[in-house]
Design brief:
single chain; alpha/beta; Metallo-beta-lactamase, Chain A; about 25% helix; globular; binds zinc ion
Length: about 300
């Protein structure tokens, strides 16, 4: 995979007025383009850094007549995305798909041309359209004059855009990280973009409180995705700094569902959630996955509560 580092993005932001949200970081994150397959690129953060930085990974697909973007990072990175697209192709950005509503995946939407066709799952449109929301949901971004950026194209279970080498399949397999997580398959590139249903090789952030996500259904949704998606080798994860492979998704489902199963039986056997968390260690076959203590406690807490 070819990697093109854009050093220009290292410059500090001088225009403080552009930074209107708490999430836009004062220091610009370096974005890195990785060629994933022919006509498909991942615009991510520089490997090795810490924290949110520019937000989630962006997929850049160069179709025969235009560019499709999947996810648009944190507000303030829209121009960076456009600049990186221009380094790849002269074709116009025609389509934007958001994997879900969160500010680090849809923040740049309002910085793109409003003629773009924005596509999301119907539940994500409902989240984006809320009058009020906790900040991760990003609904304030679409208030007032920015309502023109609300997606006009939605789907329920599955839809396809483009044909032939341009074909992109969108799947909804159920609740998990939120209630509107889309899995995007770039057919010709044999690549899936997972959003935060598979952010990295660690336990997920579960947006149960505001995004109607579910710890229990997260596992079921992973299983449905593993069963329902075929012809994929490569994965553009939600936040991991480099692309991963399909077997990682399969293993992620195994890793996560193993925790669900163990937590359910611990609960049935009268163990407290705290006792279970204390006793848990990552099984050896999933040793490349991390069970961060705080995420584990939160996840197990939701499982015990039946959420
Ligand atoms: Zn998210």
């Amino acid at each position: 995979m070819k990697r093109l580092v854009c050093l220009g993005a290292l410059a500090l932001v001088g225009v403080v007025s552009m930074v209107t949200t708490q999430q836009a970081w004062q220091e610009r994150s370096t974005l890195v383009v990785t060629e994933v397959a022919e006509n498909l690129y991942m615009l991510g953060n520089e490997p090795g850094g810490q924290g949110m930085r520019g937000g989630g990974n962006t997929g850049i697909f160069v179709g025969s007549t235009g560019v499709t973007l999947v996810d648009t990072k944190i507000f303030g990175y829209g121009q960076d995305i456009i600049r990186h697209v221009r380094e790849i192709t002269d074709k116009p950005i025609t389509t934007v798909i958001n994997t879900h509503t969160h500010y680090d995946h849809s923040g740049g939407n309002t910085e793109l041309p409003d003629a773009v066709n924005f596509i999301v799952h119907e539940n994500t449109l409902a989240q984006m359209s809320r009058d009020s929301c906790e900040r991760v949901t990003n609904c304030e971004a679409f208030h007032g004059g920015n309502a023109k950026y609300l997606p006009e194209t939605t789907f329920t279970d599955r839809t396809t855009i483009g044909s032939g080498s341009d074909q992109i399949d969108l799947y909804y397999f159920g609740r998990g990280h939120t209630d509107g997580d889309t899995w995007i398959v770039y057919r010709n590139a044999r690549t899936v973009q997972t959003g935060d249903m598979f952010a990295r090789k660690g336990l997920p952030f579960l947006d149960v409180a505001n995004g109607n996500g579910s710890a229990l259904e997260f596992g079921e949704t992973l299983q449905k995705a593993v069963a329902g998606i075929s012809g994929v080798d490569t994965v553009i994860p939600g936040h991991n700094d480099v692309p991963l492979v399909w077997q990682d998704v399969v293993n992620y489902s195994g890793f996560y569902n193993d925790i669900v199963d163990r937590a359910k039986s611990a609960q049935a056997n009268g163990q407290s959630a705290e006792q279970f968390v204390e006793s848990y260690s990552v099984p050896s076959q999933y040793s490349d996955f991390a069970a961060e203590p705080d995420r584990l406690a939160t996840t197990v807490g939701y499982i015990y509560e039946g959420q």
